[in-house]
Design a protein that fits this description.
This protein is mainly α. It is built from seven helices and no strands.
Amino acid sequence: MKPMQRIRFFSTRIVNLFRRSTLESDLTEQLEVHRQMIKDDLIERGMEPSQAERKAREVMGNDVMVRELARDEMFARFIDEGIRDIRHGFRSLAQHKAFATVAAISLAIGIGANTFIFSLTNSTLLNPPGYPAPERLLTIWTVPDRHHKLNPTLSTTRSRQA
């Protein structure tokens, strides 16, 4: 299949997804017309109408199978099934609101925790800090001294070290 044919083929299938009801009625009509043509041809050959009807149905095959094969040609089956699955999922969630709420909260907590952990890991372990000579950094903290003074200033800390 040439590239332009492939593009036309897939674009037609995508457009057909939005025209589904029209295509279904057209398919039903086309199958009936073909069955009627076969029946008329058999009657012209001398077969009785009831036998011609039965033979036409036999020649056309199983209605459900013929429709499925035609749908496979008209629609991208995997997209059609995916849309059906999504609709079914939303209907199920709408019926079971408590489950839907718990599932949504669980997803929110999981996604939030995952984002937090990744951000923390990314900023501390994976990417170096954005300033020069990070190995020369010092940590300063305060410890209460004997006289229960809390949070001494940096100048008092330096005077004690001297």
